[in-house]
Amino acid sequence: MGMADLGTPDVRRERLVRISDDIRGCRACVLREGTRQAVPGEGNPDAEILLIGEAPGQNEDLQGRPFVGASGQFLTEMLRQNGLRREDVFIANVVKHRPPNNRDPLPDEIEACASFLSHQIEAIDPLVIITLGRFSLAKFFPGEKISHIHGQPRKIGGRTVIPLYHPAAALHQGALRKVLEADFAKVPGIVDIARRAAGRTALPAGPAKADEPVQQAFGLLEIVADKAAGEGLESSTTVPAAPAPKPPRQLPLL
Ligand code: URA
Fold first, then answer.
1. 253 contact partners, CB below 8 Å, separation of at least 6
2. From ligand 1's centre to the CA of 86, what distance in Å?
3. Which partner for 252 in 54, 56, 88, 136 could form a disulfide, CB atoms 3.0-4.6 Å apart?
4. Is the Cβ–Cβ distance between 182 and 78 less than 8 Å?
5. pTM of the predicted structure, to 2 decimals
6. Which residues contact residue 194 at a Cβ distance below 8 angstroms, ignoring those fewer than 6 apart?
7. Which atom of ligand 1 is least distant from the CA of 59?
8. Does residue 175 contact residue 165 with C-beta atoms inside 8 Å?
9. Cβ < 6 A, ligand 1 pocket
């Protein structure tokens, strides 16, 4: 395979299928025991947006698909409300097998799954990563608190990463729901900025929504980019650096 082939949708798809097969065959931790199946993740191999949750729950374990229960419905609805279709993004989890009784994944389980997630990120090469909840937050923003940084995009490893609350937390704690919905409403503007920064084709008619959120997002990105440069955050990330920008994709969004 030549280097020129690495970024085509077919190659991305093949790489993702191989990663999913590896996940299904994985026995590196105890989680596989007692589950029905692995939940590798799903979506558009060519996605500009990758959403990363925590771990499969009961419904996901039954169906082998991520975010198909109540929090999944809420997530799908928030995507829709913001002009995004579930089939255009890619959805994965930090941990690929359901922890017993939905307990938190343990550090060695997260570690055992870490390379699968990193390989998925490399294969999809998304412009924007959205972390959902504290376990995916920890991969990109170690030591930071979701309550301090939610909704604030940051450039990490050449990508824009947006830390969001987990939809399940928002469903269980009413006060968080509005916070998550407000943060999610910034996503289209942030994606648009990331596209422009990457030299990809902007949306035909400029900003898709009202100028204000886009301007706010611009301000945020500039602030976090300056901060990251000042603090050397680019080099402290655990995420592999993004390769050179790809040519504009067929934009699936908005
Ligand atoms: N919660 C998650 O974090 N992931 C899923 O796939 C479902 C619920």
1. 48, 49, 83, 84, 85, 88, 188, 191
2. 14
3. 88
4. no
5. 0.80
6. 48, 127, 128, 159, 160
7. 7
8. no
9. 53-57, 60, 66-67, 71-72, 93, 168
CA torsion sign, 197 to 198 to 201 to 204? negative
Distances (CA, A) of 180 to 131, 163, 173: 12, 10, 11
**How far is it, in rounded angstroms, from Cα 171 to Cα 42?**
23
Q: Could you tell me which residues come within 8 angstroms of residue 63 by beta carbon, excluding any fewer than 6 positions away? A: none
What is the 227 CA–ligand 1 centroid distance (Å)? 31
CB 180 within 8 A of CB 78: yes
Residue 6's contacts (CB-CB under 8 Å, 6 or more residues apart) are: 243
Which of 109, 117, 107 lies closest to 20 in space, CA to CA? 117
Note whether 29 and 109 are within 8 A (CB).
yes
The alpha carbon of 37 and the centre of ligand 1 are apart by a number of angstroms equal to 14
Domain 9-231: give its CATH architecture.
Answer: 3-Layer(aba) Sandwich (3.40)
CA distance linking residue 178 with residue 154, whole number of Å? 22
What is the DSSP code (8-state) at residue 46? T
The atom of ligand 1 lying closest to the CA of 39 is 6
In angstroms, how far is CA 41 from the centroid of its own chain?
11
For the chain, the structural domain boundaries read 9-231
Q: What are phi and psi of 42, to 5 degrees?
A: -155, 160
Give the pLDDT confidence of 24-67 residue by residue, as tens digits.
Answer: 999 999 999 999 999 999 999 999 999 999 999 999 999 999 99
Question: Ligand 1 centre and the CA of 54: distance in Å?
Answer: 6
* pLDDT tens figures, 193-223: 999 999 987 554 434 343 333 334 434 443 3
